[in-house]
Amino acid sequence: MKYVDSFRDPAIAAPLCDRLKTRGAALAARGGRARIMEVCGSHTMAVGRHGIRQLLPENVTLISGPGCPVCVTAPGYIDAAIALARRGVTIATFGDMLHVPGSEGTLGECRSGGASVEVCYSPRSARDLALARPDREVVFLAIGFETTIAPVVSLVDLALREHIGNLSLLTAFKLVPPALRAVLDDPEIQVDAFLCPAHVSAIIGPRTYEPFARDFRKPCVIAGFEPLDILFGLCAILDQMVEGRASVENLYERVVHEDGNPIARALMDRYLRPVAARWRGLGQLPDSGLMLRDEFVRYDAEKRFDVPVGPGRESPGCLCGEVIKGKRSPLECPLFAQRCTPTDPVGPCMVSSEGTCSAYYKYERRMRA
Ligand code: SF4
Question: Are the CB atoms for 16 and 55 separated by under 8 Å?
């Protein structure tokens, strides 16, 4: 308990809140403001859960970014998974994906119609499924950022070592740095600094953000998920802005090391190669995804079953694409908490446990009320 308390100690939080106010005032005195993008969906959830938005000075705003892997997965990917399920393939997936709308329905609805769609709690469960049913093809829905790519791709490693022939991946891996660059390249998105994703940084290492600080003059601060982590991170960003600096700071040294995780990156590099990837909201971004290398093509479900992944169609009226880019808040969506709720979601941002709309529904709606 002491460990947890030490990251939630009000005696430490209070001076940090004061520091946020004085730094905000220093910016305001010269007409400045800070629009800070919290990139990661887990940060968005933590910000809501701990009421951090309510602690910020008026001229400091937090904008949720494209850091929810379920949310950024394009509807065409869900369509391809549904097409595979309808062909008699067993789909193995994390639970969130069951409720993400494709162009014309969800995998959950497909399962209700009799298709074989199994929820997994780890990628290894897909291997167990494949071993238990050698008569069926099993496809694992391989989505995620740098954090999850290595454990997912280790399925291929396992399949090779254990000679499993009926297991493959439908890949939609995404890389965070190209998405941040796309955000900065979009003149309609106003971001002054990044609260960088914690777990992704544990894989890629802090140096990856240096171009954003050096070339775009955006402070980049890596922070953990506890309330004090986030307050320290926001203070560090405001310190930089007030002092006219832009650098990369790692405040999550207990998890994020200077070199990131070279073992995970080596595993990724062995099996995967960079590819242009389609992001919900951000569109097609060069070198922003990873796909299996040619020598492992038999584990690539898209090729193995010839199910090309197209763009698909967004749910009518859903603003997820804008929310993911940080252009709109969920509260600006007319469907929010009306037609779109966690039990009956219209878009992925309301489905995922890291989705911005889901976070706003759970925490910000209540606080505003
Ligand atoms: S509230 Fe629902 S419909 Fe609106 S942007 Fe969020 S997920 Fe999409």
Answer: no
